[in-house]
Amino acid sequence: MISMKNVSKVYVADKPPALSDVDCEIAQGEFVFIVGHSGSGKSTFIRLLLRELLPTAGSITVAGQDVVHMKNSKIPFLRRNIGCVFQDFKLLPNKTSYENIAYALEVIGKSRHVIATQVPEVLRLVGLEEKTDSYPDELSGGEQQRVSIARAFVNRPPLLLADEPTGNLDPATSLGIMSLLNRINKTGTTVLVATHDREMVDSMRKRVIALENGKIIRDQSRGVYGYGD
Amino acid sequence: MAINPGYFVRETWSSFRRNWVMSLVAVSIIYVSLLLVGAFFLASSTLDTLMTSVEQKVTIQVFIKDGVDPADLTTMQTDIQAMPNVAKITYVTKEEALARFKEQTKNSPALVEQLRGNPLPASIEVALIDTRQVQSVVDLIVKDPTLAKVVKTPDNPLANDIRYGQEVVANLFRFTGMVRVVAAGFLVLLLGVSLVLIGNTIRLAIYSRRREIGIMRLVGASNWFIRTPFLLEGVLQSLIGSVLAILTLLVVQAFLVPWLQRTLSFLQQVLTVPDATMLQMMALLIISGVVVGVLGSGTAVRRYLKV
Q1: Which among A1, A215, B143, B225 is least buried, having the fewest CB atoms inside 10 angstroms?
Q2: Is the pLDDT of residue B307 over 70?
Q3: Per-residue pLDDT, B2
Q4: Yes or no, beta carbons of A90 and B7 under 8 Å apart
């Protein structure tokens, strides 16, 4: 699903690289945590996969597509295969839950009929049937994050990326979000979560890729958060 | 791809309503700028008509001495008629000259009563095609061999025998030429400033929605899909602004101009704005409005579409 070879990313020429010489393979259907302190390169990792950034060196393949040599006009099609969840939810404040999710389908040209069947389905999956017509500011943080997961997943992408999805949420709510991501993973979707939420990583016992100063220092299946601090 | 074209209409209209404050700001700025451009365009074209009507009054008069040989007179007329840039020549007899003088001075009949006989000379009046070229025609007339036989002072015909407003004509053309250049310069400047202002306003409206654009990119909307509603919105705003400006100018034209014509009756003909000018003004406003709408919103969205 994801393949990175000798990937480096340098933002400013004289500063240490954000990622240096990263190699990794992630297979279809895996659930992977990317862990590390702030500034260890987690977000850069995610943004490279989304082709928001180009690597300084190395090659990246996502869902069978060469991301580095991709034409700009093809980027939207890459992103349709990747669902995205962020710490700050990125919901449109003037649209209801239903409209926010429907929007993701509208902009890729799905018919109103498809939208009318898929949106309620995914709202049921994330457990928000009753909040269909609520606006984001009427929802709790956890509920907003579930709407944003529903939006990322409504298109049934083969890959779901989550950058600090529980960064703004309390532990109990975070647990709900993680189990939702786990449920999505069970449907066959590859899930990649960047986080520094130690309890979460330790309790889930999934594959863990640990980054430090832009290098992979550990990659273990059924791993823990690690770091001695 | 099965894109529903209704999407763009709905999205354009609903974002126009949702962001109505920014839209209102954009529309009013477009309206005011284009109103200024249109008003200035009409004013300068009226000024141009006025100046042209003054310029048209420039003619050459060649005064003929009494008792001239009719054959020489005919030769003279034929020669002038054949010169380049001459539109029409008119022979004014002594009697006609006197009749004109009486007409001009009818308010003070004492002047005419004092006249004994007819002291006024006959003349050839030369109307020109391009009045700016008056000097070259005068030069040709002076060189004409027949001229010496028909005028009073053949040694220096320019002193009395040929009149074309020597003293004012050069200044007049320098002045009107300058006014035209200045007016055109102002129009270009005004248009340029309006375009920058309008483009910037539209960009501001889009800047306030960059978050929305970011989310559209994230969920994989193609660039043209993101851009189209913004472009349509920019065009819609520009169209509303320019149509309002045109309506305002039409109202002004319908009420203010007749009032001016009554008040300043000597300007009657000059102040009538021809329909062609009104149409040019409308085309100018609508086209520049739409072009700016497309360019302004297009370049603004492009900034947030960069990956």
Answers
A1: B143
A2: no
A3: 47
A4: no
Q: Which residues of B touch A82 (CB under 8 A)?
A: 220
pLDDT band of residue A220 (cuts 50, 70, 90) is confident
Structure tokens at A64: 């069978």
Picking from A72, A90, A106, the nearest residue to B7 by CB comes out as A106
Question: So what's the pLDDT on residue A229?
Answer: 47
What residue ranges define each of the domains in chain B, with the CATH number in brackets? 5-54+171-305 (no CATH), 59-164 (3.30.70.3040)
Mean per-residue pLDDT over chain A, rounded: 90
| Cβ neighbours of A108 in B, within 8 Å | 219-221
**Contact: B7, A72; criterion CB under 8 Å:** no
Q: Taking CB atoms and an 8 Å cut-off, how many pairs form between chains A and B?
A: 58
Tell which of A106, A115, A118, A122 to mutate to test the B interface (max B CBs under 10 Å): A106
Beta-carbon separation of A90 and B218 below 8 A: yes
CB contact under 8 A, B217 and A79: yes
> Is there a contact between A84 and B218 if contact means CB atoms under 8 Å apart?
yes
Q: Among A28-32, A79-83, B106-110, B142-146, which is the least confidently predicted range?
A: B106-110
Give B126-185 pLDDT, tens digit per residue. 888 888 788 888 888 888 888 888 887 777 777 778 888 767 777 888 888 888 898 888
User: At residue B272, does pLDDT exceed 70?
Assistant: no
How many angstroms away from the CA of A32 is the closest CA of chain B? Answer: 21
Of A52, A80, A111, the CB nearest to B307: A52
